[in-house]
């Protein structure tokens, strides 16, 4: 009898499963919300600005994203059957995934982008039985190329929020964006702790205040009050196009590497022995299911985030019930229509300035991943990275390069992210086996921070 009940007793004694009194749970959960709130807000504004959505539709989309963030945090923290890692995870709209969603929406229409999200989430669910094989296709070199190309491509998209679709910006819009960037940088440099982690949100607030007080922009909240549910299929019925969806399909596979690293890191942070073969598929299932729901409400892929892990290390609070509490708070905020409708009135140039910071950081993350891939020495990694980046940058530097190709080829080669990632995967497989100076693949532990 003792041997049967001992494991359960051990599990209940683990810090990650500890119950937290309500008087402590609320402020701890609110702290997590403050850290992550900038990501969904800035992401929604980027989508709304790029797709020229009216304030009411923007408010509805923001409500949907906040609700999904809350539902994702609850699912990952509490777990249902084999869905959710039962770790203190939160969930956010993926910055890179949003970039690809917007790229597809601009090239093929928002309904096709919605269909691409649904296809990518379904693909992630389908490949989980082959997890150990798929994750090997995306070592740090491939991930670095992918993330760097996404960051570079989206800096261009963010700039269009400032300049307008014709690329010729008014001086006051450029000035407002620059002041927003300056406020964001100042907040990041001067503040500490949770406030520093919300520097993007602080920069947006400061930019909006400057816009209203100086006349550089206008703050126009959407009409509405009380509580309301977000609109289902805001862009209309989804359209399914496998070729157009290829950027998000490839990206959904690359997320398995990131999920692996974050799951290992989170397990170590809460004092649980990492078990990737068990926990990673559970985390990925929750990501995929919330992303499927997100596609129905007009968002891109939703992903688990490592942003809250630093709070766990800083405070020493390891309970997954704290992030579950954060999920409840996000659901409440998502249903509070006045909040989302007020936030929807932020000037477009302010959103563009914040987006420039966000996507510049994503590009730098790609550089850091490439640095961890160790491109020095006699190996073929430097050649692989060079050729992959060339293939990825060509569509940006010479947009008409593939104009004479068939449509399916233009879709693949014309997407820098897809062209660069596929080149990196193929060359890594070929040169890694037959090239000189072959390097041993990096162990799983080296991918923890990805």
From TrEMBL:
Protein location: Cell membrane
A Pfam cross-reference name: Xan_ur_permease
Recorded superkingdom: Bacteria
Topology term for the membrane: Multi-pass membrane protein
Transmembrane domains' residue ranges: 33-51, 57-75, 87-106, 112-131, 138-159, 171-191, 200-233, 288-309, 321-343, 349-367, 379-397, 409-431
Database matches in InterPro entries: NCS2 (IPR006043), Xan_ur_permease (IPR006042)
Keywords: Cell membrane, Membrane, Transmembrane, Transmembrane helix, Transport
Major localization listed first in the record, in broad terms: membrane
PANTHER family cross-referenced by the UniProt entry: PURINE PERMEASE C1399.01C-RELATED (PTHR42810), URIC ACID TRANSPORTER UACT (PTHR42810:SF4)
Protein family membership: Belongs to the nucleobase:cation symporter-2 (NCS2) (TC 2.A.40) family.
Protein name: Nucleobase:cation symporter
The species this protein was found in: Streptomyces rubradiris (Streptomyces achromogenes subsp. rubradiris)
